[in-house]
Amino acid sequence: MQNLRGVRRTAIVSGLVLAGVCLLGGNTLVSAAGQDTVKNSYAPVDDKETFAAIHSRMVSAKPGIMKRQMDLLEQRYDLSDRPAKGVTMDRTKPVQEGVRVKLPAGVSWDELSNLTPDQIRDRGAFPQGFLPLPHANHPEGGMVFPKTELDELNKQEARDLTRFDLDFDIPDRFLAEFPAAIYLTTRPDLGDVSQGKLVTIDNYYDIFSGILNPKQIEGLRLLLTPFPQQQFNQTTDRRSDKPSRGVACLDCHQNGGTNGAFHLVGDIRPQEFRHRIETPALRGVNIQRLFGSQRALKTVEDFTEFEQRAAYFDGDHVIAAKKGVNVLERGSQVHFMAEFEELLDFPPAPKLMWDGKLDPKLATAAELHGQDVFFNKGRCAECHSGQYFTDNQMHDLHAERFYKQHMVNGMMMARDGAIKTFPLRGIKDTPPYLHDGRLLTLDDTVEYFNLVLGTKLTEQEKKDLVAYLRVL
Questions:
Q1: Whole-model pTM?
Q2: At which of 325, 341, 357 does a domain end?
Q3: What is the tens place of the pLDDT at every residue in 35-87?
Q4: How much of the chain is in helix, strand and coil states, percent to nearest 5?
Q5: Are 197 and 316 found together in one domain?
Q6: How far is CA 92 from each of CA 3, 89, 176, 349, 429, rounded to the nearest angstrom?
Q7: 155 with 304, same domain?
Q8: Same domain, 48 and 18
Q9: Are 259 and 176 in contact, with CB atoms under 8 Å apart?
Q10: Looking at 341, 363, 381, which one is the last position of a domain?
C-alpha cells in the first residue's frame, strides 16, 4: 500500500507541475507512465510536498487557471454593468437587469423555444450559460470567497480567507448586497437589525444583546466561530498563506444572507462530476423542510452537523481527522445554532398580502400580469407554491435532454439531478440563481425555465414575470 501511494503521489505531482492543479477527491491513481491503475475516493493524507513547494507551484499556475475561468464566463455571459432603473436590493445596491446568457450564433430565444430538446441537443444550440457552471478550478475545488468578505474579515478579525491559488470569479455587481440586512421573525418591528455592519465574532454581542435570548446569542457565537476546513486549517496542504483558524458558518452566509461564496458538493465522485454549489441565503429557514440543495436533509440541525463533520472536508472524514474536524454536540451547540438560524426572516414585501398574493391596490399592471403568468402559463407555482413560494419538495428538470455530456474546464456537463425548491421570497436580493449560480439575473432565470419547461412565453410575459419576481 505504501508503494502504491508513492506511485500515485509521484504521478500526481508530476502531472500537477504541468497542469497547475491538485485533485482532492475521487481521483484516479496513475502510474508514472500515465496508465490508470486504481480509482480512489479518498484524498491523500500523508504529505509528500513541503508547503513552500505547494505554494510556489500553485501561485505560478494561478494566472493561467483564472484566465481559463474568466474566458469561460466571458464566452457564456454579458458581464457588463447594466443596473435596473429604480430597483435595489436590501439597501442601495442596484439589481442587474437583462438576459446575460449569450445565445449561440444565428438563433433567437423565440426560435430556440420552438425547437425540441432533441433538436437543440443535436445542433449544439443549448446556450452555454445554461450548462452547469464549473468551479473556478474544478479539479482543485474548495471554498472561495468574494473580495468584500475577505476585506471585512481581515479588517475586523485579522483572519485572512484569501486563497493563494484562486480568486473569486463572478463580478461583484452580480452578487447580493454586502453586508446583508438582517430581519428577525421574533422582532419584525425592528426592521434591519444589522446596523449596516457585517456581523462577526468581534461585534455580535454589542449588536444582539437585548434582542436575542441567551441560547440564541450562544448559537450566533458558534455560527461566527471559525473551525478548521479543507482549505483553511493548520496543515501543510492548506490553501492560505498562513496557518488558519478556519471558516465560520456565517463567512459564507454573511449576516444570514449570502455573499456568493462557492465550493463543490462533497457527496459525488469522481471529481469531474461534482457540482459547484453557490451559497444560499438562510432567510426563511424556519419555513423550510429540506436542507442542502440536493442532499434532502430533513432538519436544519441535520444540515448544521453535516456541514461541520463532512461538507467542510469534501465529504472525506479521513482528511477531516487530519485537519482538525470540529465535532459539535447535538443537544446544545447544534440546537443553539439552529435556534438562531430559524430566526432569520425574509425581507419585507409591502405589496404582498398575507396569502402571498399581490395587493391590487399597490401593485402595478405589469406586476399583476406577471403574477398571472407565474400562477398559470409560466407554471412557476407548480413548485413555488404557497405564501413563501416553495412546495418543500425536490424536482429533477432533466435539463440534460438539451445537451450532450462533455467536459468543460475540468467539469463534466452531466445531469443536475433533483434540486430542492428554494423559496422565492426576497429573490431579487440574493443573486446569482440556481444551485450553482449559473444564472446571473432574474431575466436569465425566466429564460432558462421558459426553455426547459417549454412554456413559450412572449417577450411581454417574460418582462412582466421579472417585474413580479422583484416584488416578492
A1: 0.92
A2: 341
A3: 555 788 999 999 999 999 999 999 999 999 999 999 999 999 999 999 999 99
A4: 40, 10, 50
A5: yes
A6: 59, 6, 11, 16, 11
A7: yes
A8: yes
A9: yes
A10: 341
Please give the residue range of the domain that contains residue 459.
79-131+348-469
pLDDT (tens digit per residue) in 253-265: 999 999 999 999 9
Bridge partners of residue 276, in order along the sequence: 264
Tally of domains within the chain: 3
User: Bridge-partner residues for 278, per DSSP?
Assistant: 262
Whether residue 433 sits in one domain with residue 315: no
Cα separation, 243 vs 235, in Å, equals 7
Q: Do 178 and 245 sit in the same domain of this protein? A: yes
- Cβ–Cβ contacts within 10 Å for residue 366, how many? 15
312 and 241 in a single domain? The answer is yes
Give the cell for residue 288.
423550510
Residue 72 lies in a domain: no
Residue pair 228/326 in contact (Cβ under 8 Å)? The answer is yes
Q: Which residues contact 82 (CB under 8 A, 6 or more apart)?
A: 96, 97, 98
Q: How far is CA 54 from CA 16, 51, 211, 228, 355, in A?
A: 10, 5, 47, 19, 56
pLDDT tens digits along 222-280: 999 999 999 999 999 999 999 999 999 999 999 999 999 999 999 999 999 999 999 99
